């Protein structure tokens, strides 16, 4: 299973970015998907998660600014980030709990995409 993120970049404070993540491989089912981030010198932290039924969970620091969504038919998850702040600067990682034809449910991670918020 491969998770490939896209959409990161440099944006000014108050701006928006949309991250996307596509899962590929011999996928039978994807359960929870999510976004995490890791800033320099800090631990990786949860940003948002979404179940296969569409239930969402957000970290307090992104509530009202970020929206997570997924397309089950395409095995993708997206993160719409609005009102970005400099403290949102981090590498953003996609993760997913995936069952394949050859293995039970396991957690997979993408390679990360850099988001930088700066004037």
Distance between the termini: 37 Å
In terms of DSSP E residues, the strand content is over 45%
Average of per-residue pLDDT values: 97
Helicity range: under 10%
Number of helices: 0
- The oligomeric state is single chain
Give the overall form: elongated
Number of strands: 11
Low-confidence parts, pLDDT < 50 over ≥5 residues? none
The structure class reads mainly beta
Q: Tell me the series of helices and strands, N- to C-terminal.
A: EEEEEEEEEEE
Main beta sheet: 7 strands, mixed
Specify Rg, calculated over alpha carbons: 14 Å
Q: What does this entry look like structurally?
A:
The chain is an all-beta fold. The chain is built from no helices and eleven strands. The strands form two sheets. Strands 2, 4, 5, 6, 9, 10 and 11 form a seven-stranded mixed beta sheet that branches. The protein has a four-stranded antiparallel beta sheet with strand order 1-3-8-7, with no helix packed on it. Strand 9 (90-100) and strand 10 (106-109) form a beta hairpin. The N and C termini lie far apart (37 Å).
Secondary structure layout plus pairing:
Layout: E1 2-6, E2 9-11, E3 17-24, E4 27-38, E5 45-50, E6 56-58, E7 66-71, E8 76-81, E9 90-100, E10 106-109, E11 113-117
Parallel strand pairs: 2-11
Antiparallel strand pairs: 1-3, 3-8, 4-5, 4-9, 5-6, 7-8, 9-10, 9-11
Provide the descriptors you would attach to this structure in a database record:
single chain, 119 residues, mainly beta, seven-stranded mixed sheet, four-stranded antiparallel sheet, elongated
